[in-house]
Amino acid sequence: MIRSVVRGIGSSLPRRIMKNADFEGMVETSDEWIAQRTGIRQRHIAADDETTASLGEAAARAALDAAGLTPADIDLIVLATSTPNNTFPATSVEIQNRLGMRHGFAFDMQAVCSGFVYAVTTADLYIRGGMAKRVLVIGSETFSRILDWSDRSTCVLFGDGAGALVLEAADGAGSIADRGVLAASLRSDGEHKDKLFVDGGPSTTGTIGHLRMEGREVFKHAVGMITDVIEAVFSQAGVTAEDIDWFVPHQANKRIIDASAKKLGIADEKVVVTVNVHGNTSAASVPLALSAAVADGRIKRGDLVLLEAMGGGFTWGAVLVRW
């Protein structure tokens, strides 16, 4: 059978680093308060000349370099983002142009923080369906553009950045030992829209709007929803938590990450955590964490890696990959 194998991964972060202490003159908060409740110590904030497209392009080029490929080798670009450069056209098309691609096709995927997991799953289906041989999957966000900087409950949580990977079609035996995407489970439930949303849009207010969140409600639902899709993936693949080499969750809140790992029975030493240095970068958080763990040598070829995310909507999903 055809498997979607990871050929390369890369990331890109804005130049500016904003530490927790930098908020103390802006809103009523402190480094201790933020770190204790979220695990976040710092985040990257995009400058005027850094956009979702430019960060996504840089991450894409890094992934292509790691794969030993060029834009000419890519058939499809899937960009996960909730902060596009323009209402339209899709920011993926702008990245395609920046890469100098005059072939193939590109589209954006909007599932908020679950976007990258949705995008990997979608890319895998295009590859297994024979419509693409190599796909560039990108998660890129500039959430700093939609934050209310006077709202201490949200402005301290988010950061900007991008991560990307190249998936390539390869023959597999159809067993759990195959490299590539092995299983996936996606869910959504629009009933929870008002718990995490942006209060603007072209069809409603005609404005960009700002991010709004009921933090306690999101936390309350997160762990249960996350474990639901992970257990579905385990069932599909015929594995257990003990078989997992690395757990790479959405980097929203250290307490959610810890609670999820504990409920699933995944050992702390198998959990990749970058929320302390990146904050919540929405669709970029999983590929940024993946990229960091590959770069420092933790994730190696042959490792069984579990990806998971939950975002506004609510949307949530999990993907199991043999690296």
Please characterize this protein's 3D structure.
By secondary structure, this protein is α/β, with parallel strands linked by helices. It folds into 2 domains: 2-171, Peroxisomal Thiolase, Chain A, domain 1; 180-322, Thiolase/Chalcone synthase (Peroxisomal Thiolase, Chain A, domain 1, 3-Layer(aba) Sandwich), CATH 3.40.47.10. Helices cover 31% and strands 26% of the residues. It has 9 helices and 13 strands. The strands form 4 sheets. The chain has a 5-stranded mixed beta sheet with strand order 1-7-6-4-5, with helices on both faces. Strands 8-13-12-11 form a 4-stranded mixed beta sheet, with helices on both faces. A two-stranded antiparallel sheet has the order 2-3. β4 (76-80), α3 (91-98) and β5 form a beta-alpha-beta unit. α2 (52-67) crosses α3 and α6 (215-237) runs parallel beside α7. It is globular. The chain starts with a strand and ends with a strand. The mean pLDDT is 97.
Keywords:
13 strands; Peroxisomal Thiolase, Chain A, domain 1; 2 domains; 9 helices; alpha/beta
Per DSSP, what share of the residues sits in E-state strands of 2 or more residues? 25-35%
Order of helices and strands: EEHEHEHEHEHEEEEHEHHHEE
Determine the fraction of residues in helical runs and give it as a percent range. 25-40%
CATH superfamily of the largest domain: Thiolase/Chalcone synthase
Order of strands side by side in the largest beta sheet?
1-7-6-4-5
Give a topology summary.
Elements: E1 2-12, E2 16-19, H1 31-38, E3 42-45, H2 52-67, E4 76-80, H3 91-98, E5 105-109, H4 115-128, E6 134-142, H5 152-155, E7 160-171, E8 180-188, E9 196-198, E10 211-213, H6 215-237, E11 246-249, H7 254-264, H8 275-278, H9 285-295, E12 304-311, E13 315-322
Parallel strand pairs: 4-5, 4-6, 11-12
Antiparallel strand pairs: 1-7, 2-3, 6-7, 8-13, 9-10, 12-13
Helix pairs in contact: 2-3, 6-7
